[in-house]
Amino acid sequence: MRVLHVHSGNVFGGIERMMQALAPASAGTAPVHSHFALCFEGIVSDTLSACGAQVYQLGAVRARRLDEVRRARRVLRGLFAEQRWDLAIVHSAWSQAIFGPAVLKSGTPLVRWLHAPQPGPLWLETWAGRAQPALVLCNSRYTMENGGARFGAGPLAVQYPPLPTAAMTRPRRTVRAELGSDPNVVVVILASRLEAGKGHAVFLDALSKIDSPRWEAWIAGGVQHPAERSYLDDLRKQAAAAGISGRVRFLGQRADVPDLLAAADIYCQPNAAPDSFGLSFVEALAAGLPVVTTRLGAAREIVDDSCGVLVDPGAIDTLAEVLGALIEADDERGRMSAAARSRSREFSDLAESTARLAAQLARATARTLALT
Fold this sequence. Notes:
It contains 16 helices and 13 strands. By secondary structure, the protein is an alpha/beta fold. A seven-stranded parallel β-sheet has the order 3-2-1-4-5-6-7, sandwiched between helices.
């Protein structure tokens, strides 16, 4: 099944990591062969191209510039005139609004992959609604239950994002040596975009309350917007004020996150806002890390008592207590590590995930044909 993903491509986050998993280098060509049409060049297009994907450039678009919208739609219509795809998938209200009409005019079934339950601006969601998808894929039960209703009676389905299990490319000791970390220290890692909802500030507050010399923290994630630069500066100041800056390493944007996870011991991301899925949790589980996060959003679908701990949002003392106990309990971490790997396979088996995706898309195609 040939699928064209139509997306902005100006920021690299969870959606883009999923696209990377669907690229040929990860997923091959069967049962879903993914191509990508992006509006912006940069890290997303470069990453997908490096993974063997065919990437088409639609040109930069601002939604309020109708001349740019019309030009990009013409480019997309040209692609559909030259090639045939079984479906086109859009990953946001923005791309549905701008490109949905061109997709439907080509006769290609349109699928919306819903990655968050919260609606976009009303004007944008209203505009997007003019191009009705044949199917709405929701990235979790949480997303479907909290955001699916606005699509009316249209078909909805839960499709967890496909995710390959990335192999470690460098030994654990090597990674730690490169970062100047003691091979015996207990490393607590947080790897995510630099945004307040991921709970960095709460993480640092909890670390400052742990009375143990055994821990070190790694924070991975780079600046992609000016606001994130200010946020990172505030986090560095917070660590310094708490007297833990010597034990907290801000690693910036990294291309070796699988190696970092495999070289760490605990994953902690105490979200202040709910994640609609949480690829970072699944990646951490696949690396064998117990996951400590908050009882919000789809984390409750991913993390159970066998492989992690859920705490109430904002409960800094409880978070510190949980982390402190795990840092000292080597045997408990080992038990949870084995359970984490087993749990991750329910989400990260790429062959099974893409097979489920192909089945969902085939039904969308069949529904579209039945209506024509």
